[in-house]
Amino acid sequence: MSRVGVIGDTHNPWSRKGYLQFCQDTFDEYDCGIIVHIGDVNDHHNISFHETEPASPGVLSEYKKAKAATQKWHKAFPKVKVCLGNHDLRIIRRAKTVKIPEFFLKTHNQLWGTPGWKWAKSFVIDGVYYYHGTGQGGKYPAANAVGKMLMSCVLGHNHTASGTKFFANPNQRIFACDTGCGIDDKQMAFNYIEDNKQRSILSCAVVIDGVAYVEPMRCSRGERYHDSNFE
To answer: Residue 2 and which of 53, 63, 80, 84 are 20 to 30 A apart at CA?
Structure first.
């Protein structure tokens, strides 16, 4: 069976310093041969349907920063299966509001310069269902998805959810994996969660021979992936 490394939501250009290095180190350690990005590669804050921050950069400035960040990920991981997240689809949703059909738009690979990346709503690898998780909520979003899909699921989307739960019957064992994320809560794009008492969980996941493990990013002061160790 495959050894799959799963990148959490990055929301470029608002991702956490060191998250890329953390994912590289983790996937190297586990010798992952397949890489999945669980979605929301880029944030698109300035074309949100919600209120945007007045001090945020313009659409073009944000795009340039997000593309530069995405290029670093592409260099590190030239072949990735990307689960389209709700933020990744903001451009298409915006276009539809002014009756522009999708075929007039650039593809994600054209927009972000990511040849070798495959963008799709979901993927099934070794009987495990990978998708962004849009529409799932609650304390254990992936567990809710398992109840609907009746198969092992790996999700992102919910930044405060991270971990693996197992379920078994006399015939099989399946799991629900919430990947966690790689965002920087302190960036203005996430001001909307400032009253949220929970912090985002910085982590990634690996699925080895059909079993999911979640690795927390050690980024407290004095730890390997603390912001002070990165530009």
So the answer is: 84
